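[agent] plan:
  1. take the single chain provided in the ticket
  2. run structure prediction with default settings
  3. attach C-alpha cells to the ticket
  4. add a short note for the reviewer (M.T.)
[agent] executing step 1
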Amino acid sequence: MKKNYFLTLLLTFIFSSAFSQDLVITGAIDGPLPSGAPKAIELYVVNDIADLSIYGIESTTNGATAAGAEYTFPADAVTAGTYIYLSFEDTLINQYLGITPQYVDNVINVNGDDTVILYKNGTIEDLLGRIGQDGTGEDWDYVDGWAYRKDGQGPSATFNPNEWTFSGPNALDGCDKSDDSGINADCSSVFPVGTYAATASTTPSLTISSPSNGSTISFTDMATVKFSVSNFNVAPGGTGDGYIKWTLNSVAQADKFDTDDITFTTTGGTTYEIYMELVDNAGNALSTPVNQTISFTVGLPCDIQVSTITTSCVTETSGVDTYNVSIGFTGGGTSTYMLTADNGTVGGDNPSMMTTGTITISGITEGTNIVFTVKGDTSNSSCDFTRNISSPTCKGLPFIETFDYADAAVLSDQADWESVNSGDDIITATGSLTYSGLKPSEGNKITFNGSGAESFTKFTDVSSGTVYSSFLLKVSAFQTGTNPDTIDGGYFAGLAAGTSSYDARLWVRPNPDTSGTTFDIGFGPESSNPPFTTSTYNLGDVLFIVMAYDLDNDVVSLWINPDAATFEGAAPTADLGGNDTNAPSSINTFILRQDSTNETPTIEIDELRIAKTWAEVTPKDTTTASVIENEIDGFAAYPNPINGKSLTITSSSIDNKKVQIFNMIGKEVYQTSISGTNNRIDVSGVSSGMYILKVVEANKTATQKLIIK
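[agent] step 2 finished; step 3 output follows
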C-alpha cells in the first residue's frame, strides 16, 4: 500500500498550528547507578516561553492520585528548540549522559513505574504514566530503563503509551562500570538524548529498544527483544507496507508480519546478534534501507543461593567477645566457589561439592561487621555477590555501669556506648550520687540537658521474663527554653528493642512550672501524655529509679525510691505502669535522650544497672551507712552520705513523725517533727561525722546509720 506522505505532512502541519503547545515531556531515565541515578526527565520547548514559572512538576508513586505541582520552575525565559533537563542530582547524570541539568530537585527521585505530571498554570498539561496506577508490569513500565517520546507527539493530558518508546524494565542492567563511576562504557546507547522532533517524521524507522546494544543481560533461558516501527505498516498478505526480515547470529529467521516482541531460547555465556530490516511486500529493501543491528550477551547462571544468615555469640561479657555466623545455601555443586570474609575463618559445608548445606564463619571480633563474598568460576558461573553481616551484641546481663571515666569524657566514645545522632554530647562529671541503703556508688556520674545526641548501650536480646534497669537520678535545674513544656515535659531514658523506638519511657515534668522547684515523674510506653505521679519531687533530690519491662505480659513498671527493705529481694508494687499495646519481641537497648531546651532539664545519672531480676538491680549497702531497723512502710532517708545541708525523709504514711539524730555515743544532736510522705529537713547545724538517725511514726520505728560530710 502506498502512503500519502504529502497528506500526512499537511495534516501534521494543520494539527501543530491549531493545537501546538509550548512545553512537552520528551523523555525520562531511571538509571542503574547507586540510588537509581541518573534519574531525570527531558522536556522540549516547542515555542518561546517568557516565564517558565507557569509550569510545575509532580511525581506520584505507587498508584497515588495527583495532588498538584511539587516543583515549580523558576521565572526563566527559554527559547524554542531548547531541551530542559530536571534531575534529582547533577553529578552522575553528567558522567553518565554528558548532561548538566538546568534544574535539580528531589521530585524526580522516582522509579520507572511512577507517574510524572507536567502542570501549566495549575492544570495538567502532559503525562508520562497513568495517574492512580502503579506501572509495575504495565505496558509503560521502564524501571531501570528509559522512556522517550515519539516525534511529533504530545503534550497530552491523557496518557497514551503509543506516543512513546519504552526500553522495558531492567534494560540498563549492566550498563555501568563495576566501580559505579557513572561513565557509560558498557553500553553504546542508553537514552536517546535530545533527539525529539516537534514535527513527526514521515520516514519509516525501526528501533530495537531492548536489550541495549553491547549489554550483558542476566542469565535467562529465553531472551526477549523489544522493538518498534514508525511510519510503516507491518502486515501480512500484502495488506500493509511490507514486513520484517531478521537474522539471529547471521542465520535467517521466519519473516515477521507483526511488531510483537521476538523471543528465542538462549544459553548462558553466549553473545547474540540481531539484525532486523524493513522490506516491501515483495521482500525488497526500501529505497532508503531501514535496518538495525544489535548484539548482547546472556550472562552465565548463578545457581547458588544463600538463605538464612544467623549470628551467635561465643561468649557474653561486658568486654569484647567473639561471634560466629551460619549461612544456609542451596543450589551448590554447580561451580567451584571461592568464599571469603574480611574477618573470621570461613568453614562449614563446601558449596563446590554439596548441593545444600551451611557455611560457617567463626572467631569474628564483636563489634566488627563483616563482608562475606561468593565468587564462582568465571568459566561457568556469573556468581559474584556479597552479603553484609552485622555484629550481634554479646553483652550478657547483668550489666553494671559506674561511669568510671575521666571528667568531661563523652559517653558515646566509651566502649559500651554509642550515639544515635549528632549534637551536644552526654558527658561524664566528677563525683557520684548516693542513696541510702543502696550499695555505695563508684566512679563518676553523667550529665546532660537540652537538645543533643542520644546515647545508648546494647545488650543481648531478652525475649522472655523481665528486664530491669535501675539508676540514681538528680534533676538539678529545669529546661531553659523560651517555651518550656509543662504538659508532659520530656522523656529522657528508656528501655527499647532498638534505637528507633522507646518501649518504656521515663519523663520529667515541672510542677506547676519552671518558676518553682518541684517536678513530677511520668512513665509508660506512650509517646506523649503518659501517666504521672501524684507526688512531687524537689530539684536537687537524689532519686532511686527502677524501670522494668515484662516481656511475658507486655507490662511496663516504674518504682521511685523503693523501700530499702526490698533490696536484693522481690519487687514491691510499682508506682506507675501500663500495658504496651505495640509490644516488641525483645528488649536489648537502654537509651538516654536529649530532646530540646523546652523539654529536657539538667539531669545527672549514676550507677546504672540492667539485669533480669529485681535483686540484681537493687544491691544492698553493706557498709556503715546502712539501715539498722525499719518498721515504717516506704521509709527512706537520702542522700546518705549528706554532702549538702538537707536530708529527705519519705514514707508511705502522712502520719506525724518524730525525727532524731544521735552521735555515736548516744547523745541527741538534732530533733524535729514532720508529717506527710516526703519531707526535707535542714541539718546544716549538725557537724560532720557519723550518726544514728531515728524516725518514729505511729509506734513504728526506723533507725539508720547516717554520714554527714
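[agent] step 4 note for reviewer: The chain has three helices and 48 strands.
[agent] ticket updated
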